[in-house]
Design brief:
Structural class: alpha/beta
CATH superfamily of the largest domain: Spore Coat Polysaccharide Biosynthesis Protein SpsA, Chain A
Radius of gyration: 23 Å
Strand content: 15-25%
Number of domains: 2
CATH topology of the largest domain: Spore Coat Polysaccharide Biosynthesis Protein SpsA, Chain A
Largest sheet: 9 strands, mixed
Distance between the termini: 65 Å
CATH architecture of the largest domain: Alpha-Beta Complex
Shape: globular
Helix content: 40-55%
Number of helices: 14
Length: 354
Amino acid sequence: MTLSVCMIVRDEEQTLARCLDCVRTFADEIIIVDTGSVDNTVKIARSYTDKVAFFKWTDDFAAARNYSFSLASCDLVMWLDADDIISEVNAKKIAALKHCNDFDVAYLKYVAAFDGDMPSYVYFRERIFRRSMNFKWEGEVHEVVNVSGRQIYSDASIYHKKVKQNPARRNLSIYQNLIARGLPLDARQKFYYGRELFFNSMYVECIAVLKDFLAGDGWEENKVEACRTIYCALCKLGNEEQAVRALVYAFTISFPRAEDCCILARYFEGKNDVRTAIYWYERALASPESIENGGFVNVDYLSYIPAIRLCILHDKLGNYELAVHYNEIAGKAKPDDPSYLHNKKYFQTKLTER
């Protein structure tokens, strides 16, 4: 099978070539849709492909992506952003998917943040589609494809590495314009609108919107994330006790997520309740959470963070063997981490003295 890579871009001269150098190693067709660049983006795009088109920007990411897909002619279509990077190893994995005929949608890992060179914030996104299925993007912002058919999860990863920030209030303004036009927000839009309010320091409004979202229908992962965002907003407003209650409400929706367990653990650490803090860090390590659930996952909370904190807390209690045990768990997650290496030397000395 053949593969079209479709991109919508605007003023991406800093990153577009970096992305396309990766793409041209596996794509049979590259389609670039420019939505109004005033820099050298179009010139760079034309040096990689003759399939450069233009789309008048209407504050609708789904419309732009659907237009890019409409120009594709290959068996499979894939979307990317200009600030995405694909390593040689992952490019080969994507190329191999062209020889796989048993899927209509392929999910790939999206690595959105890093701790040094190590991925820290990872989630799966619908990435490659069989063109004959005629899938459509939905949502003016934080757009998504409502998928069906045969779905697979690939171990290929795409790295999202920004070099510039999105225009201030861009996404928030799109939502506010929708509301001003009298268009109701669906559950997913309410969730992302609440997050945009938080990112723009509108904490009271954020809490109101996300509470409204929680009262209705919505995806489980988004509801759990909404509780965490309300927690953060209430902390910003100085209401820590109320924030903790908002966070714990997530446990009535689904099993406790590792990040939420770590947040609770730090709360009890702050109150010098070491044993309760240990309990919640242990729950974090035992979490059945997986990125295949589709939610946003900071992988540090699944292993490194609870392990390194358990090491420190057991050291405080004089439980040196347990402290060493948890330090080694942290070291497996991050073998070059300075805290792990410092602790390792510290315990070697400590246990020798005993």
